[in-house]
């Protein structure tokens, strides 16, 4: 799902209108203290700065962007990205329209409830290669990429699938760090892509063997 965004009063961020390819934009020193920004979280501020950087790179206050692209470049959760964009619209920092790829119709986007509705309806744009690649980059063992990417591509049907797989990888990473597992004990990426659902909400009772109340990771998951 790509979003068409118009940054309001964009000219104040681009005082050099004569430059066709600006390498910078105006960033005022009251950014953290202004009435529209002071209560934003650090992630929300980062999303807003990213949008300004992206608009500056395009030399236009009118941009079309995929929230997943924002998420993967800022390391901010997708849900936070969409909520932040909603919040920025409410504060009249920007206006939004959302492109529905199935009907090719532009529809107004005003609240996060609409975002949840789209997720529930499985209206989701096919993933760009760089988005899928970012999931592989987060995975702790870089083995089994080719087959794993094929499985990954076949399993992502909507936004929730993408979010769940990303959550599963994060849970695995956290587990590996906590248990201080060697890389040889981590399943290949291709193996994990067939088992990731077990890690969305991991429960030792459904993941296999346990040792002293902990998962026996080496026995419960086998590689290709």
Provide a descriptive summary of the structure in words.
Residues 100-115, 121-130 and 205-220 have low confidence and may be disordered. With 224 residues, the protein is α+β, with helices and mostly antiparallel strands. The longest helix has 21 residues, at 159-179. Strand 3 (94-100) and strand 4 form a beta hairpin. The protein folds into 2 domains: 3-120, no CATH class; 129-220, no CATH class. It has helices spanning 42-58, 67-74, 78-90, 112-120, 129-138, 145-155, 159-179, 189-192, 204-207, 217-220, and strands at 3-7, 62-65, 94-100, 105-108, 210-211, 214-215. The protein is elongated. The protein has 10 helices and 6 strands. 45% of the residues lie in helices and 11% in strands.
Task: Describe the structure in brief.
With 224 residues, this protein is α+β, with helices and mostly antiparallel strands. Helix content is 45%, strand content 11%. It has helices at residues 42-58, 67-74, 78-90, 112-120, 129-138, 145-155, 159-179, 189-192, 204-207, 217-220; strands at 3-7, 62-65, 94-100, 105-108, 210-211, 214-215.
Helix-strand blueprint:
Elements: E1 3-7, H1 42-58, E2 62-65, H2 67-74, H3 78-90, E3 94-100, E4 105-108, H4 112-120, H5 129-138, H6 145-155, H7 159-179, H8 189-192, H9 204-207, E5 210-211, E6 214-215, H10 217-220
Antiparallel strand pairs: 1-2, 1-3, 3-4, 5-6
Helix pairs in contact: 1-3, 2-3
């Amino acid at each position: 799902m790509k979003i068409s965004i118009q940054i309001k009063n964009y000219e104040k961020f681009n005082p050099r209108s004569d430059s066709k390819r600006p390498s910078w934009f105006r960033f005022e020193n009251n950014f953290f203290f202004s009435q529209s920004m002071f209560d934003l979280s650090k992630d929300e501020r980062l999303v807003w700065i990213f949008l300004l950087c992206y608009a500056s790179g395009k030399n236009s206050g009118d941009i079309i962007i995929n929230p997943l692209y924002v998420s993967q470049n800022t390391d901010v959760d997708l849900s936070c990205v969409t909520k932040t964009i909603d919040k920025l619209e409410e504060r009249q920092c920007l206006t939004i329209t959302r492109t529905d790829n199935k009907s090719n119709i532009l529809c107004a986007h005003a609240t996060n409830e609409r975002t949840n509705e789209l997720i529930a309806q499985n209206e989701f744009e096919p993933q760009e290669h760089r988005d899928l690649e970012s999931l592989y980059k987060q995975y702790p063992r870089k083995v089994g990429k080719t087959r794993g990417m094929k499985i990954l591509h076949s399993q992502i049907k909507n936004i929730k699938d993408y979010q769940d797989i990303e959550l599963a990888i994060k849970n695995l990473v956290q587990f590996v760090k906590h248990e201080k597992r060697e890389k040889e004990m981590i399943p290949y990426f291709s193996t994990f892509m067939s088992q990731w659902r077990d890690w969305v909400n991991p429960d030792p009772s459904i993941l296999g063997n346990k040792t002293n109340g902990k998962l026996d990771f080496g026995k419960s998951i086998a590689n290709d």
